[in-house]
Amino acid sequence: MESNERSADTEALAGSFACLSGPPSEPTAHPGCGECLSFSVARQNARSTGDYSAVSDANVLMRRHHMEAHAS
Ligand SMILES: [Zn+2]
């Protein structure tokens, strides 16, 4: 389980995911939602500084926000 997440991180590092609709392992921002956007920005900042624990934190927070604010 952990090895799968690591390989996804490695592919994200290559930057190819940025042009796709989004890697399946990461939540994406809902259009027009400022909170989603702030989590997305925090995640990108964390990734740009190589802080992958902060990337995970941002994903957890965004998923929780999705469940609370965008439950479908
Ligand atoms: Zn949202």
Structural class, from helix and strand content? mainly alpha
Low-pLDDT sequence parts:
none
Number of strands: 0
What is the radius of gyration? 12 Å
Helix content: 55-70%
The N- and C-terminal alpha carbons lie at a distance of: 27 Å
Order of helices and strands: HHH
Oligomer: single chain
How many domains? The number is: 1
Globally, the shape reads: globular
Portion of residues in beta strands equals: under 5%
Count of helices?
Answer: 3
Which cofactor or ligand species appear?
A: zinc ion
Q: How would you characterize the largest beta sheet? A: none
- What is the average of the pLDDT values? 81
What keyword list fits this structure?
72 residues, mainly alpha, 62% helix, globular, binds zinc ion
What do these coordinates show?
The protein is mainly α and 72 residues long. It has one domain. The protein has three helices and no strands. Helix 2 packs antiparallel against helix 3. The radius of gyration is 12 Å and the shape is globular. The termini are far apart. The model has no long low-confidence stretch (mean pLDDT 81). It binds zinc ion (ZN).
In short:
The protein is an all-alpha fold.
SSE topology sketch:
Blueprint: H1 2-13, H2 34-48, H3 52-69
Helix pairs in contact: 2-3
Bound molecules: zinc ion.
